[in-house]
Amino acid sequence: MLKVAMLGMGGISKAHRLAWKEIPEATIIAVCDIRPEKADAAAQETGAKAYYRFEDMMAAETFDLLDICLPTYLHADYTVRALDAGIHVLCEKPISLKIEDVDRVYEAAKRNNRCVMIAQVVRFWQEYLVLKDAFDTGKYGRLLSGRMTRLGSTPKTSWDGWMRDPERSGLVPFDLHIHDLDFMIYAFGQPEKMTRFRAGTPTQDYFEAIYQYPGFFISAEAAWFDCSYRFQSAFRFQFENAVLEFKDGKLTIFHQNGETEEPCERKTDDGDGYVPKTNAYFEEIRYFTDCVLAGKPCEKVKPEELKTVLSLIEQLA
Question: What is the reported pTM?
Answer without folding.
Answer: 0.93
